Amino acid sequence: MDKQLPLIGMIDRPTDRTVIADLMAAFPVTAILGPRQSGKTTLAREFSADHVFDLENPRDAALLAEPQLALEALSGLIVIDEIQRQPNLFPLLRYLVDTRPEQRYLILGSASRDLLRQSSESLAGRVAYHELGGLRLGDVGAEHWRDLWLRGGLPPTYTAATEAASHRWREQYIATFLERDIPQLGITIPATTLRRFWTMLCHYHGQVLNYAELARAFGISDATVRRYLDILEGTFMVRLLQPWYANIGKRLVKRPKLYLRDSGILHALLAVRSPRDLAAHNKLGASWEGFALEVVARAIGKRNEELAFWATHNQAEVDLFWQEHGRNWAVEVKYADAPRLTRSMASAMTDLELAHLWVVYPGDRAYPLAASVSTLPITEIGGPWRYA
């Protein structure tokens, strides 16, 4: 029987709303970046804009054909959605916020790398960024973590009435992304080619990336692999987690790890339709690892470039490493009923001089494993991270 979720409809997102409000109070331009259908437009509506331009709307795009004439006389909060369609607006926004202090801008975009480069060059010191991503665990309720894991965090797929409807939505999302969104970014790769590549990446999910191996498997060059990955990373579809280098006299892994950022998209590409499918799949552990890492990354509020993993060639590793409050912290992810302290964890504690290591698992009880090492149930990561 197809399962129905008890939580359907509009979902409040208090954490993201608070962060965005704080940024808007401090900067004349705030950029909300995130994948298509992640809820950027819905969230922007909560800030009572005085003027809204959606560059996917032909009428609004026509109004901004002469942008200075359209914007210069306005005041208050001005929202510009899908701004990646007109990157030439950034130099004008710098002029306007410098000369019109009564103007504030909230800009929304779906392509991170180009937007960051273009806006940072023109709006240095005037713009703040917030990556929205999908729904947080705290948005849906920690008790619904299994549904969030299976369906992913994009609001329409999570709130779909049934698992079958959720899976159909994700299939359509993938097709639209490949056939419409990618060409609109000026990328001329055939949709079928990029989909086959994207599907192949599912089997490398959670693994250290070997560009040459991936190139051989797909029959393309290393440079083409890097180009395709750059596209998928820049549109929030994949996360390349870089290794942490520490001068500890050990041979370290120095290539990035690959994750598909949304677990629901991963499952759609793997044809996983139900909890039973997921439980029987050989990527179960890797899927759990990627999901838990995304939950943690959202909770600690770090950008991808501030996160890393650590691994040696002797199999010692931690899945996520970061620095905060002048100290080192780490997370290891385990799909197990009752994780135990391992030699790898002990090595990481010593070599990385960790203040604390959390072992995130799907259980319901937190308990210590050693000094400064403890388990952490996924259900306890709904809000901002609590440091030991």
Structure description:
The protein has 388 residues and is an alpha/beta fold. It has two domains: 14-131, 3-Layer(aba) Sandwich (Rossmann fold); 137-380, Arc Repressor Mutant, subunit A (Orthogonal Bundle). It has 17 helices and 14 strands. It has helices at 14-26, 40-44, 58-63, 67-71, 89-99, 112-122, 137-140, 145-151, 155-158, 163-184, 191-202, 211-218, 222-234, 263-269, 275-280, 284-300, 343-351, and strands at 29-33, 51-54, 76-81, 103-109, 127-131, 207-208, 238-241, 257-260, 308-311, 317-324, 327-333, 354-361, 368-370, 373-377. Strands 9-10-11-12-14-13 form a six-stranded mixed sheet, sandwiched between helices. A five-stranded parallel sheet has the order 2-3-4-1-5, with helices on both faces. The radius of gyration is 22 Å and the shape is globular. The two termini are 43 Å apart.
CATH topology of the largest domain: Arc Repressor Mutant, subunit A
CATH domain class name of the largest domain: Mainly Alpha
- The total strand number stands at 14
SS-based structural class? alpha/beta
CATH architecture of the largest domain: Orthogonal Bundle
Taking pLDDT < 50 over at least 5 consecutive residues as the criterion, the unreliable ranges are 4-8
The overall pLDDT average reads: 91
How helical, in percent, are the residues?
A: 40-55%
Strand order of the main beta sheet, please? Answer: 9-10-11-12-14-13
Distance between the termini: 43 Å
- CATH homology superfamily name of the largest domain: Winged helix-like DNA-binding domain superfamily/Winged helix DNA-binding domain
Q: Strand share of the residues?
A: 15-25%
Q: How would a crystallographer describe the biggest sheet?
A: 6 strands, mixed
Domain module count = 2
- The radius of gyration is 22 Å
- Give the overall form: globular
Number of helices: 17
